Amino acid sequence: MKKIQMTVPLVEMDGDEMTRIIWQSIKDTLLKPYLDLKTEYFDLGLAKRDETEDRVTVDAAMATKKYGVAVKCATITPNAQRVEEYQLKQMWKSPNGTIRAILDGTVFRTPIIVQGIKPLVIAWKKPITIARHAYGDIYKNVEYQVQGAGTAEIVFTSKNGDQSRQTIFDFQDKGVIMGMHNLDGSIESFAHSCFNYALDLKQDLWFSTKDTISKIYDHRFKDIFQDIYEKDYRAKFEAAQIEYFYTLIDDAVARVMRSEGGMIWACKNYDGDVMSDMVATAFGSLAMMTSVLVSPSGCYEFEAAHGTVTRHYYKHLKGEETSTNSMATLFAWTGALKKRGELDGLHELVAFADKLEKASIKTIESGVMPKDLVQISEVVNKKAVNTEEFLLEIKKALDEML
Ligand code: NAP
Ligand code: MG
């Protein structure tokens, strides 16, 4: 068989531990035999980040800006224990945080749906994508513990020295205060990413905040989304026959639970943190959750939502058998290949990535799956396979389809 050719390279970001092992196996077993795989390779493994003083992470993000599509393996975010384990020069920042700061995007998380693994919410038939704003609010707050009676105020001092002040509360006794912020520019980027992604997936976009209570802060989010929608996207949404609507977060929660799924739900930073864990759990497993960062300028970075699966890696190092689920990592690759194919007009590449996804889903639905899914699948005659066997079974199903 002739290998499918690529024209523009993917930005490939290698990572750590068990996912690094899976990364190599996916390439060797499921990609290289079929594709003339072109990538610009960046090793984001912790050793290389330390050696390059984390320059490699910045270079990888810059390359993503240049080429437009990246695929990333899970990476260790160092803590004190990792500094010791890897003898690090310093406690390097989270690579995802560094990449996000350079690309300035929104993270979209979508579960992979397979027959036999029923969502815990029985009405859900199609995946629900959470779009989480990744800047500000409670994550960049300033907090203060009030020790006794006194007045708390918000004071804003403008560049020319003008001040405006408002009383938060006249405390008669102990309590707590918090100050937080967001930026119009960041909310605008968030809105553009969400509207573009909805058009990409041809799915409805829902957006929710608590603007009835937060009449200035949350209302600003609502107004910015509505203005941008009317100005840049209404006509495109109507042409694509999809809908944008805004509703209160409590109403959104009630409607999502009653829905069939199949929409994108845009959430503020904290709401997105909480709701994405709920959606992932209700759909079955973190190992079945895909994740893509979309920048307002239209760059895409695909990854799995889970981490480096450290416990399995230590077993692997001891020579013990592992049964790690490679679905989310595989879908990061297929997502990136499909996007590259769309951008470069390579229909064969898009079709291949589609088939690879179908082959992997078919494998699980036929009863062959990693251990974590055996525990939740209702398929009869199911069988747990090890990490390598699972990829080989997918290859078998793929070869039948090609
Ligand atoms: P994790 O790697 O997601 O694993 C947590 C547990 O979830 C695993 O021990 C395993 O449970 C289960 N699990 C996750 N993915 C699985 C898969 N593909 N197949 C089977 N089971 C899976 O999270 P963590 O242990 O908290 O973090 C490990 C490292 O990953 C940390 O160094 C952290 O910094 C990093 N991390 C990176 C990213 C990223 O790069 N995006 C995200 C999160 C964490 P059992 O052990 O019960 O089998
Ligand atoms: Mg969380």
Note down, in words, how this protein is organized.
- With 402 residues, this protein is an alpha/beta fold.
- It folds into 3 domains: 227 residues, 3-Layer(aba) Sandwich (Isopropylmalate Dehydrogenase); 126 residues, Isopropylmalate Dehydrogenase (3-Layer(aba) Sandwich); 38 residues, no CATH class.
- Helices cover 45% and strands 21% of the residues.
- The chain contains 14 helices and 18 strands.
- The chain has a 10-stranded mixed beta sheet, with helices on both faces. The chain has a two-stranded parallel ribbon with strand order 1-3.
- β15 and β16 form a beta hairpin.
- The longest helix has 24 residues.
- It is globular, with a radius of gyration of 23 Å.
Give a brief outline of the structure.
By secondary structure, the chain is α/β, with parallel strands linked by helices.
Distance between the termini: 10 Å
CATH topology of the largest domain: Isopropylmalate Dehydrogenase
The best one-word shape is globular
CATH class of the largest domain: Alpha Beta
The largest sheet, given as strand count, sense and whether it forms a barrel, is:
10 strands, mixed
CATH superfamily of the largest domain: Isopropylmalate Dehydrogenase
Report mean pLDDT, rounded to a whole number. 95
Percentage of residues in DSSP E strands: 15-25%
Major sheet: order of its strands?
4-2-5-16-15-6-7-14-12-13
Task: Give the structural class.
Answer: alpha/beta
Give every kind of bound small molecule, once each: NADP nicotinamide-adenine-dinucleotide phosphate, magnesium ion
Total number of helical segments? 14
Please indicate the count of domains: 3
Uncertain runs are none
Q: Which architecture of the largest domain per CATH?
A: 3-Layer(aba) Sandwich
Assembly state of the chains shown: single chain
How large, in whole angstroms, is the Cα Rg?
23 Å
| Total beta strands | 18
